[in-house]
Write a structure and sequence with these properties.
The complex is a heterodimer of chains A (about 260) and B (about 375). By secondary structure, chain A is an alpha/beta fold. Chain A folds into two domains: about 1-215, HUPs (Rossmann fold), CATH 3.40.50; about 230-255, no CATH class. Chain A has helices spanning about 35-50, 65-75, 95-105, 125-135, 185-195, 240-250; strands at about 1-5, 10, 20, 25, 30-35, 55-60, 80-85, 110-115, 140-150, 150-160, 160-170, 170-175, 200. Chain A has a nine-stranded mixed beta sheet, sandwiched between helices. A two-stranded antiparallel sheet of chain A has the order 2-5. In chain A, α2 (about 65-75) packs across α5 and α3 (about 95-105) crosses α4 (about 125-135). Chain A starts with a strand and ends with a helix. Chain B has helices at about 5-25, 30-35, 40-45, 65-80, 80-100, 105-115, 230-265, 280-305, 315-340, 350-355, 365-375; strands spanning about 140-145, 145-160, 165-175, 180-185, 195, 210-220, 225, 270, 275. Chain B has a four-stranded antiparallel beta sheet, covered by helices on one side. A three-stranded antiparallel beta sheet of chain B has the order 3-4-7. Chain B has a two-stranded antiparallel ribbon with strand order 8-9. The chains are: A alpha/beta (about 260), B alpha+beta (about 375). The interface between A and B is medium-sized, with 14 and 18 residues. The complex binds flavin-adenine dinucleotide. Flavin-adenine dinucleotide (FAD) binds next to α5, β2 and α11 of chain B.
């Protein structure tokens, strides 16, 4: 089985966001594999172990993403591909999906797994956009996948309920928390990771011009949410409190 | 000159850190209270391939270097000192002498189960009458037919209850007043060998510290480790490596104490402001950060020398001495900055101090490290 995983290098969940000159600064920041993509990697390895085949982990990003690709290889992926997008202007979800679509154009694949969202931009668009471009079905936020021949049975997290879906391969799925418990890379895995193939592709290699994929999104402003003020405890009996709450929501917060 | 860790080191560090935070740290307070040995943690470390970390792959090891070893020890010790010493002793006291001096057959028989995690490693040197003066060994091994007959007592031996075979030192002959000391591998289930755990320790409660009593224990002659009469040289070489492990443990415990204390000093408020705004407290925290940085550099340097085949006895002694003393100072100040809370178990810093004290004693006391350094600088 040909299994592919879409992976993104993102800020560590514990990093504090700092804005400098209108941009989010990545000075001294710790990077990780996007946590949802870790679920996808783990599931891909399990599918490979159960059905045979190969797992290729693909990222669109800067050179530094090689570190996270190596970690994915240490976890057990077989090969890695880094598509360099450093020359892409204002790259957005549209750009990334275009680049990935160009990469997958001449590939044979049975399953492509990605994270449900990335923990930085959180748009959740890459998976669905790519599936659409490749003309294959996609199921998002899966918490279970079983494959039998060219048919997959999936459980999908539908806002807390479970939807059971059958789909045919080739298929793209995105992983939700609860799909699995990602493994730690083992020491032998870490030692082997360096010897596994890691291919670096430029846009040229995909017959793309950087202008073909420059972003379609315009960023108007980047700002932090307002600092959380101190909480307030309303006094009095429930009636008075309710009246006061409505008054505050209307007059102070101006939300009703 | 290059102060960067390699990609493998960084991955290992991340893996060990995440493992230590998720699997080792949560039970540390409870294990300190109950003294229950963390068997499940060692089972998982075995599955991760970390128990044979620096040994060759042909024996089931990980083929990693000493820098990797100190990274693993530091991260485990940061979460739990008992787990740290168990691991460090397993590798550097238990596995290393068999790897360095064992025959091919001995390595197959004794090193492989250590790498796979089927057994833990231990090393029996210290005796009631022979501590710093390890050459004062009284345990004797006498040849009888094709066997060694061993009599004596070893004390304070880490991990022996979980070992399958224990290299011990014994007097195998005398030339005038000079003892001939050799190392012999003794199966833990040999007849006449008893292992007990009689100690009530100050700290490292969940580590296994044992007394080994040998009464007419008979082992085959081929259980001699390396050459006859080289026991003294062997344990000096073994301890050189072990000291790097103790240095790494000290860095790990100190790091834990420092992190907890920095966080606490920012949250705890007195006189209308957080403790971290008082210069007296800031200076203590600055000293802590500096000492940890220096200790870690020295530990890395000793490990680097070892990995590059250079002499490292002096640096191993220096890193062990500096890191363990720095760790004690840091733990003491960590409690001080925590005030009354620091005296309470829940805040963990008092455990760090109790665990850290061993680091100034085991594998050569601070005084012995100074003796080693003095000898190395030509005194
Ligand atoms: C928890 C724990 C685990 C241990 N694990 C192991 C193990 O796995 N295997 C093993 O073989 N041993 C182990 N040991 C033993 C440890 O290595 C010894 O305790 C240590 O080497 C000190 O020896 P001692 O206790 O006999 O102290 P002593 O040698 O009696 O020393 C007492 C004091 O005198 C000082 N002193 C001694 N000689 C001199 C000198 N010439 N000049 C100046 N000062 C001197 C010492 O520095 C110390 O302060 C362990 C000990 C402990 C507590």
């Amino acid at each position: 089985m040909n299994i592919y995983v879409l992976m993104k290098r993102t800020f560590d969940t514990e990093e504090k966001i700092v804005i400098e000159n209108g941009c989010i600064s990545d000075d001294g920041v710790n990077f990780i594999i996007n946590p949802y993509d870790e679920f996808a990697i783990e599931e891909a390895i399990r599918l490979r172990d159960a059905h045979g085949g190969e797992v290729t982990v693909v990222t669109v990003g800067a050179e530094d993403a090689e570190k996270e690709l190596r970690t994915a290889l240490a976890m057990g992926c077989d090969r890695a591909v880094l598509i360099n997008n450093e020359d892409v202007e204002d790259g957005d979800q549209w750009s990334t999906a275009e680049i990935l679509a160009a990469y997958f154009k001449d590939k044979e694949f049975d399953v492509i797994l990605g994270g449900n969202v990335s923990n930085d931009n959180g748009t959740g668009q890459i998976g669905p956009r790519l599936a659409e471009k490749l003309g294959i079905p996609h199921v998002s936020t899966i918490v279970k996948i079983e494959i039998d021949g060219d048919k997959a049975t999936l459980e999908r997290d539908a806002e807390g309920d479970i939807e059971i879906i059958e789909a045919s391969l080739p298929l793209l799925v995105t992983a939700q928390q609860g799909l699995n418990e990602p493994r730690y890379p083992s020491l032998p895995g870490i030692m082997k990771a360096k010897k596994k193939p890691l291919e670096v592709l430029e846009l040229d290699d995909l017959d793309l011009d950087e202008d073909d994929v420059s972003g379609r999104t315009e960023t108007v402003e980047v700002f932090l949410p307002p600092e959380k003020g101190a909480g307030r405890i309303l006094e009095g009996d429930p009636d008075t409190q309710a009246r006061e709450l409505v008054r505050l929501l209307r007059n102070e917060a101006k939300v009703i | 000159m290059d102060f960067e860790l390699s990609d493998e080191h960084r991955m290992l560090q991340k893996m060990m850190r995440e493992f230590a935070d998720a699997e080792v740290a949560p039970g540390a307070i409870e294990r300190d209270r109950t003294g229950v040995f963390p068997e499940d943690i060692f089972k998982k470390l075995g599955e991760l391939g970390v128990l044979g970390l620096p040994f060759p792959e042909e024996y089931g090891g990980g083929g990693a270097d000493t820098i990797s070893f100190v990274i693993a020890v530091e991260e485990l010790s940061r979460a739990c000192g008992s787990t740290g010493i168990t691991y460090s002793a397993h590798i550097s006291l238990g596995g290393a002498p068999i790897h360095m001096f064992g025959t091919e057959e001995q390595k197959r028989k004794y090193l492989v189960p250590l790498c796979t995690g089927e057994a833990l490693g231990a090393f029996g040197l210290t005796e009631p009458g022979a501590g710093s003066d390890a050459g004062g060994t009284e345990t004797s091994a006498v040849e009888d037919g094709g066997e060694w007959v061993i009599n004596g007592t070893k004390c304070f031996i880490t991990n022996a209850s979980y070992a399958r075979a224990i290299p011990i030192t014994a007097v195998t002959g005398r030339r005038g007043s000079k003892k001939e000391i050799s190392a012999i591998i003794v199966p833990a289930d040999a007849e006449g060998l008893t292992i007990s755990e009689p100690y009530e320790k100050m700290g490292l409660h969940a580590s296994n510290t044992t007394e080994i009593h040998l009464e007419n224990v008979r082992v085959p002659k081929e259980n001699l480790l390396g050459r006859r009469g080289e026991g003294f040289k062997q344990f000096l070489a073994t301890l050189d490596g072990g000291r790097i492990g103790i240095g790494a443990m000290a860095v790990g415990i100190a790091q834990a104490a420092y992190e907890k204390t920095l966080r606490y000093a920012k949250i705890r408020r007195q006189f209308g402001t957080s403790l971290s705004k008082f210069q007296a407290i800031q200076f203590k925290l600055a000293d802590m950060a500096m000492k940890i940085e220096l200790a870690r550099l020295m530990v890395y340097k000793a490990a680097w020398l070892k990995d590059n085949g250079k002499n490292f006895s002096k640096e191993a002694a220096m890193c062990k001495l500096y890191a363990s003393e720095a760790c004690m100072e840091i733990c003491r100040e960590a409690i001080q900055i925590h005030g009354g809370n620091g005296y309470m178990r829940e805040y963990e810093v008092e455990r760090y101090l109790r665990d850290a004290k061993l680091l100034e004693i085991g594998e050569g006391t601070s005084e012995v490290q100074r003796m080693v350094i003095a000898r190395e600088i030509g005194c």
